[in-house]
TrEMBL record:
Domain TonB-dependent receptor plug: 152-226
Keyword terms of this UniProt record: Cell outer membrane, Membrane, Transmembrane, Transmembrane beta strand, Transport
Superkingdom of this protein's organism: Bacteria
Bilayer disposition of the protein: Multi-pass membrane protein
Pfam families: FecR_C, Plug
Homology family: Belongs to the TonB-dependent receptor family.
Cellular location(s): Cell outer membrane
UniProt xrefs under InterPro entries: Beta-barrel_TonB_sf, FecR_C, Plug_dom, Plug_dom_sf, TonB-dep_rcpt-like
Protein name in the entry: TonB-dependent receptor-like protein
């Protein structure tokens, strides 16, 4: 970290320490409308659906306990600038009242165009599908989902059509046939290079923060760059609360704490921390996760080696979040955010010999440090600008002690992303708005290999500077929504320009039908590759690299989709076709474990797919069935005689069937997940008694058995004095089925061995949470 970034972080910490001294209780007679809505939801057993921008800066008194729900809604409509629409007995949609363009300046925009919601309660409460095809998640409103004990952001995304993790890892989310590094994951506007704890089994982002998440699979906004697959944009609260909110939680993996402290009427400090409890107890949940995470690693190999004693195994993880909000004036806002994520594994190896005992330590550390400062200015009722300076430092390092060969291998992969973003938005009228901006990014990536026996050291560092300018036009009427824009990227090192047009068009017809068409061109210069499957103790095998326009070119993609949606009352039926062509991928990024494992070639993959969903809501019952089908093939000039063959993540069919039920304070969810097996390559039979190399069949010409999993979750909410509490249990893989996630072959003493990576077996979890 250079001097400038260190100084910025020091100022950031000092600012927090200064303002925390002046923390005070600010209970007022009036409460934020959002808090009042939460009270009413529990009182009347209803669900309010709204965009955060609709209710911000609105304060009202809590309605009297004696009045009915209809009287409450009438009162709220009179006291706010909102419309309340009751869709059924339990779902109430809140929208801004239509206004003419105001003529005088006031605090922030009184009219702000929002993505029109196509359906509320998509799969469960707190999830909505927008008319531009994107999906919104609000974790504080989120209902229960099968197998999940908490609202894990990335696990929830896996429930959507077109999204799958072929190895049950949220560090390997495949959206419409893409690899995980092709997804853009933003935390309060800052790109993340690490997304999982426990090496991919749970999300690295505290699930109880009040996220407002937008997932775009196609037709994403022109403000998003550096991804050729999906965009997962996680926004954190930026409004000052009127009272302190504190939560404590515990499950069979970790414990967490979070609080929101208003320091004054215009400032707030948000804090959250989570840490594994593996230092104190090894629960059944931890034991299952441990088996799954380390089953194909150096650690598991040593545990199965009778000549080496493995002891003092230690694994832990934590994440720490903080955010400071300052409403400088009615039209100016300052925000500072900080996030630290870390996973650490260590163990000792002991070898007893005739000359004495030899003991060495192996360890792996994966950490991410992110910080950013954002300034927002409301120039006019309809014109707003924002500027963000951010810095991310990602570090993956390991020491692999090979005690049998008296060798130590040190490996390190470091990413430093330093950038600036400036956005400007202008609302011309209620139908037309514009977005424009500029982004500067300086990414430096280094890779280190250091061996002591024999001595060898390789250190490579690359730096890439890029500039991006973008613009977007939004047009919305009762029947039409159009978003058209483009992003222009310039890469200094290569003196190369790339233009990325984007378009989303939604047309409503016959009252209950919508036609959605999207198209986009994208590119990315940062990706992940695998040098050796044994790298980083065989656990985190992927390392980040920069494009060099030779061995690793800039990846580009073209994607288009066409879908029809039928929405009537509480029934949604949707079908969407899509095509996706991705060019200039490196074979080293695909994780081949067959005849192409050590081949370096540049190629493409092409996806043709279809996503279908039927979602039916009743008063307290919600059920859905989704089906996804795609064909995903590689084309490499030097592989397989230039003939196409199945992609490593070519899972042809995926079915999700689930339901959840709410009765008073009890929530229950059940779900079934099934998909066809992923492809693999078998070795050909050999008549030789001695095999020196494996002769493989046609690449990915065989398939694993189908994957099937049944999950269940139960949650109960109750009171402990004046505090709200919740307890829950979940079971992942109730059927305890042994699913094979991956299989490959290696050669040991001239004998071909088949190695199988298997799924999580039956994995229970339990949680308890209290908030006040």
């Amino acid at each position: 970290m250079n001097v400038r970034n260190r100084l910025f972080f020091l100022i950031y910490l000092l600012t927090f320490n200064f303002f925390s001294i002046y923390s005070q209780d600010s209970n007022q007679e009036k409460k934020p409308l959002r808090e009042v809505l939460e009270i009413l939801q529990k009182k009347f057993n209803v669900s309010f659906s709204y965009a955060d921008n609709s209710v911000k800066n609105q304060f009202i008194t809590v309605p009297d306990d004696s009045i009915t729900l209809s009287e409450v809604i009438t009162q709220l409509q009179q006291k706010t600038s909102l419309q309340f629409e009751i869709l059924n007995g339990s779902l109430i949609v809140i929208r801004k009242k239509q206004k003419t363009k105001p003529k005088s300046k006031s605090s922030y925009s009184e009219f702000e165009p929002l993505d029109e919601v196509l359906v509320q309660g998509y799969l469960t409460s707190g999830i909505s599908k927008n008319s531009d095809g994107s999906i919104d998640l609000e974790t504080d409103k989120l209902g229960i989902l099968p197998g999940l004990i908490e609202p894990d952001v990335l696990q929830i995304i896996n429930s959507f059509p077109g999204v799958i993790t072929v190895d049950e890892s949220i560090s390997n989310i495949n959206v419409r046939g893409g690899t995980h590094d092709q997804n853009l994951i933003l935390f309060d506007g800052i790109r993340m290079y690490k997304s999982g704890h426990f090496f991919g089994l749970i999300s690295a982002f505290n699930p109880y923060l009040d996220y407002d998440i937008n997932l775009s699979k196609s037709g994403s906004s022109s403000k998003y760059g550096e991804s050729i697959s999906s965009v997962i944009d996680m926004k954190l609260p930026d409004e000052v609360s009127t009272g302190t909110i504190t939560q404590f939680g515990l499950n069979m993996i970790s414990a967490d704490f979070l609080t929101r402290i208003p320091l004054s009427e215009t400032t707030e400090l948000q804090l959250a921390a989570r840490r594994s409890i593996t230092d104190f107890i090894n629960t059944p949940t931890y034991n299952q996760y441990f088996k799954r995470a380390f089953q194909d690693s150096d650690l598991s190999a040593l545990l199965n080696n009778n000549s080496v004693l493995v002891k003092d195994e230690s694994f832990s993880f934590h994440d720490i979040y903080s955010k400071f909000i300052w409403d400088i004036s009615r039209d100016d806002k300052l925000k500072l955010v900080f996030l630290n994520i870390e996973n650490e594994l260590s163990y000792d190896q002991k070898l007893t010999g005739s000359t004495g005992d030899l003991e060495l330590e192996s360890n792996l550390n994966q950490q991410s440090f992110t910080t950013g400062i954002t300034y927002e200015k409301q120039i006019h009722d309809d014109f707003k600008i924002s500027a963000q300076k951010y810095f991310t430092h990602y570090d993956l390092s390991s020491t692999n002690a090979d005690i049998l060969n008296s060798q130590n291998l040190i490996q390190e992969n470091v990413v430093q992303d330093n950038g600036l973003k400036i956005d400007a938005s202008y609302n011309y009228n209620e139908s037309v708005s514009f977005l424009s901006g500029y982004q500067f990014s300086q990414v430096a990536i280094s890779n280190l290999e250091d061996v002591d026996n024999p001595e060898f050291r390789r250190y490579i560092k690359q730096v890439l500077l890029s500039h991006s300018a973008y613009g977007q036009f939004d047009y919305t009427t009762d029947r039409i929504q159009l978003k058209a824009g483009a992003r222009l990227n310039y890469f200094e090192k290569f003196n190369r320009f790339l233009i990325e047009p984007r378009i989303t068009f939604n047309y409503k017809f016959l009252n209950n039908f919508s036609l959605l068409a999207t198209g986009e061109l994208k590119s990315q210069s940062v990706s992940q590759i695998i040098d050796l499957q044994e790298d980083f103790l065989g656990i985190e095998k992927r390392r980040w690299v920069l494009s060099d326009e030779n061995d690793i070119p800039i990846i580009t993609s073209k994607q288009a989709s066409l879908g029809v949606f039928y929405k009537m009352n509480n029934l949604l039926i949707s079908g969407e076709f899509y095509i996706k062509n991705v060019n200039d991928i490196s074979a080293r990024s695909q994780g081949f474990q067959n005849q192409f494992q050590f081949v370096n070639d540049i190629g493409n993959y092409n996806v043709r797919g279809f996503d279908f969903l039927i979602n039916q809501r009743f008063k307290n019952f919600n059920t859905w069935l989704s089906y996804s089908y795609n064909v995903n093939n590689y084309d490499f000039a030097s592989l397989n005689n230039a003939e196409s063959f199945p992609n490593n993540v070519d899972v042809r069919s995926v079915i999700n069937l689930a339901a959840n039920y709410t009765y008073n304070d009890i929530k229950l969810a059940l779900g079934l997940n099934w998909h066809t097996g992923r492809p693999f390559t078998k070795p050909l039979q050999s008549d030789n008694t001695i095999i020196r190399t494996i002769n493989f069949d046609n690449p990915n010409s065989s398939r694993l058995a189908d994957y099937i999993r049944f999950d269940a979750s139960l949650q109960y909410q109750f009171k402990i004095g004046k505090a709200n509490a919740a307890a829950g249990v979940s079971v992942w893989s109730v059927l305890d089925k042994r699913n094979i996630l991956n299989t490959y072959f290696d050669l040991d003493n001239n004998v071909i061995n088949q190695i199988e990576n298997t799924s999580l077996r039956v994995t229970p979890n339990a949680s308890f949470r209290v908030s006040f």
